[in-house]
Design a protein that fits this description.
The protein is α+β, with helices and mostly antiparallel strands and 411 residues long. Helix content is 50%, strand content 9%. The strands form four sheets. Strands 1-2-8-5-3 form a five-stranded mixed beta sheet. A three-stranded antiparallel beta sheet has the order 4-12-9. About 1% of the residues have low confidence.
Length: 411
């Protein structure tokens, strides 16, 4: 039996996928899985696919009909209960129209204006931690700060934060290659609770418009265009979930990486000019999103690969589901020298694809980077004697990779 090079059901793979990615890049840069999907692990292939107009993000409309009951169910789950696709799963012109309506709220200058608020939230958390001498990073800092910021942007209430976090975790779990019927049941149940909650808030906001992003979306006009109610709900679900979920894992994974590389932590502590580059390197080193999916609209060929053993080239028919493995691309030694080493002053760290690329480049990238920069930078400078106070806990995930528990001693 041929060895599986990409096996998301292997606990070792999920615990530390990077050695497996190395073998994929060397032996099968375009790897056909037993489920007739193709896995890309080489930087150039991943980057070009993400940027190419020959590939679609709308799997439901353009992928070959799924062959297994779980694949059928997964495809159906890409729509919310009201039948509206998220912007994540749209192609132009729909994607262009929806993204244009919110772009102004996420420009670098608009995000930079949030810095004092982010700093205040972080400082409040660190004040409490300093008094106690310990903190649990995820529950006390990595989740509440990004959640509060996106809630501020949308002017959403925060009294149901625990429920919203649980709902978002069920929704992101449904993105996993290992998702089961139970996982998808839980995600659908979460949507059934989340959507009515959001409708109630949206209806109230229509009656009392403010200066927040949700009000802006309600009245947005771009060439006479507006969001439909269903599009608005799908968008708010995305902003609410993606608006904090990615950053939670970036802060958690990044802090752990620094604790395991104390020389790099000290390098950043001593040099504030590294703030931006350090976050890019943390995203490259162990990013929160490990893979994303595309579908070719025409027959495509990957390869031949110069300097690679194994495959010469691979023909992929249109409609095939193609997994672009961002985590593998970010550890490609053809692009990043000594890729498994954390180097916060890495000259080309910003070439990472941790936040995707092309038209689907993460809408909230500037916000995620700002929050991580302030949260991690403040933490390591406030506490020169920052140490692990126990073993980190990891989510058993592949697509969304992150620690779910990181106990610290802060002094």
């Amino acid at each position: 039996m041929t060895e599986l090079l990409f096996n998301p059901f292997d606990p070792e793979f999920r615990a530390n996928p990077y050695p497996f990615y190395d073998r994929l890049r060397e032996q099968a840069p375009a790897y056909w899985t037993p489920l007739d999907t193709v896995v890309l692990s080489r930087y150039d292939d991943v980057s070009q696919t993400l940027r190419s107009n020959d590939f679609s993000r709308d799997i439901e409309a353009n992928a070959i009909e799924p062959k297994t009951p779980m694949s059928v169910r997964r495809r159906e789950s890409r729509r919310n209960e009201r039948g509206t696709k998220s912007i994540l799963n749209l192609d132009p012109p729909d994607h262009t129209r929806l993204r244009r309506l919110v772009t102004k709220a996420f420009t670098p200058s608009a995000i930079e204006n949030l810095r004092p608020r982010v700093q205040q939230l972080v400082d409040d958390v660190l004040d409490v931690a300093e008094e106690r001498g310990t903190m649990e990073l995820v529950d006390e800092l990595a989740f509440p700060v990004p959640f509060q910021v996106i809630s501020d942007l949308l002017a959403m209430p925060t009294d149901r934060a625990a429920e919203l976090r649980e709902w978002s975790q069920h929704l992101t779990a449904s993105l996993e290659p290992t998702a089961t019927d139970e996982t998808l049941d839980a995600a659908e149940a979460a949507i059934e609770q989340l959507v009515p909650y959001l409708i109630e808030i949206i209806d109230e906001r229509r009656r009392n418009l403010g200066e927040d992003l949700l009000s802006g979306l309600l009245v947005a006009e771009e060439a006479g265009d507006r969001l439909s109610t269903d599009e608005l709900i799908a968008f708010v679900v995305l902003l609410y979930v993606a608006g904090h979920e990615t950053t939670v894992n970036l802060i958690g994974n990044g802090t752990l990486a620094l604790l395991r590389n104390p020389d790099q932590m000290q390098l950043w502590r001593a040099d504030p000019s590294l703030d931006g580059n350090a976050v890019d390197e943390l995203l490259r080193f162990d990013g929160p999103v490990q893979l994303t999916v595309r579908v070719p609209m025409v027959d495509v060929t990957f390869g031949p690969w110069e300097g690679r053993d194994g495959q010469e080239k691979v023909e992929v028919p249109k409609g095939t589901i193609v997994m672009t493995v961002l985590g593998a691309a970010n550890h490609d030694a053809m692009v990043f020298d000594d890729p498994h080493s954390l180097r916060l002053d890495r000259p080309n760290a910003n070439r990472h694809v941790a936040l995707s690329a092309g038209i689907h480049y993460c809408l909230g990238a500037a916000l995620a980077k700002l929050e991580a920069q302030v949260a991690i930078g403040s933490l390591i400078r406030r506490f020169p004697n920052l140490e692990l106070a126990g073993e980190p806990g990891w989510r058993d995930r592949l697509t969304i990779r992150g620690v779910d528990r990181l106990p610290l001693t802060v002094r």
